[in-house]
Amino acid sequence: MKKLYVMLVLCVSTIFVANAQEVSNELTLSFYHIAGKSDFVFNDQIYTTDNTTKITFSRAQLYLSNFTITHDGGVETPIPDSYLLISASTEDYSLGNFPFENIEGVSFYVGIDSITNHGDPSVYPDGNPLANQNPEMHWGWAAGYRFLAIEGNYDAANDNTFQGVFQYHSVGDAYYKQLSFSINDATASDEDKNLVFELDWLALLNGVDIAENSIIHGSGNIVDIIMENEATPNTVFTWVNLVTGVADIANDEFAFYPNPCQQQIHFTTSNNQYPVQVNLLDMMGRKIATYQVLTPSQVLTLPTNFTQNMFLLQWQSQDGHLGKKMMVKY
After folding, report:
1. Beta bridge partners of 59
2. Is 285 exposed, middle or buried (0-12, 13-18, 19+ CB in 10 A)?
């Protein structure tokens, strides 16, 4: 009898552990790096700021930290030791594995909390976002980390000649501010979770006159503007709305069919503002193709050289960037 009891306990424990493992899914943040309405490209691509200064980017890095996930009916779960060094050259960042079913919101801080900010980067192993970097992101134990570092060339005279370089490095605990986003993409409990954001590096420079002072390492009026832009929701960071399923959104001005589809889809819109840019993304937020919709109904031909069958079709509306998951049958 005792032996049977032990066996039952072991069976129940095994089932419990197995179930716990089944619902523990990886949570990934993906950033679609842009500059205004264009894809972000280092060095070669020229962008125009809101005060008509032409620039290129040679460096684009920033810290995000102390994430909190709202899930499953309003439960708020802080993610410990969540520090990310975001670079415009990298799209996907893992926050770890968690037993979340429905994600309803996410909040995070730009910069690094004061205690960590004034710590010693040498105590962290290589590969840790808080370790010493190249190029360096740590200013020194007294000042702390560079919360943000953007650099490049600028042409304020619009004569197609760069007058010099710009360098803006933000340093200081005062720039540590929280951003919060509501999420209504409730994904199934057996799927890994992927939150996709647009990160507009050009929007950091909204309201900045680069020619006034093109190099600032630390703090000051221009850095204040840059960091305020970063901490304003839907300015630099915009959550991309992943609408799951195949049903159309009620009262939506955009639609596409069929879903699932094969090589072509019909994209329709009642929006009279053309062109409409439509992006085809993979489920990690990476852009695969871009289409310009010029009529109320247009046929879009999909690439055929991919093995995955789940994609995201994303477009711009008055409510921001919206999207729907789309299944392709080969």
Report:
1. 151
2. buried
Distance CA 321, CA 242 (A): 9
Considering just the CA atoms, what is the radius of gyration of the chain in Å? Answer: 23
pTM of the full predicted structure?
Answer: 0.72
- Find how far residue 255's CA is from the centre of its chain: 25
Instruction: Tokens 């010493």: give the residue.
Output: 132
Please tell me what DSSP assigns to residue 302: P
Residue carrying the six token digits 């929007």: 203
Burial letters for 112-122: b for 16+ Cβ neighbours within 10 Å, e otherwise? beeebbebebe
By residue count, the chain amounts to 330
pLDDT in tens, 39-93: 788 998 899 999 999 999 999 999 999 999 999 999 999 999 999 999 999 988 9
* Contact indicator for 79, 125 with CB cutoff of 8 Å: no
Q: Which residues contact 27 (CB under 8 A, 6 or more apart)?
A: 69, 94, 95, 96, 97, 98, 100, 192, 193, 194, 195
- Give Cα 297 to chain centroid, integer Å: 30
Structure token pair of residue 311 = 């994609």
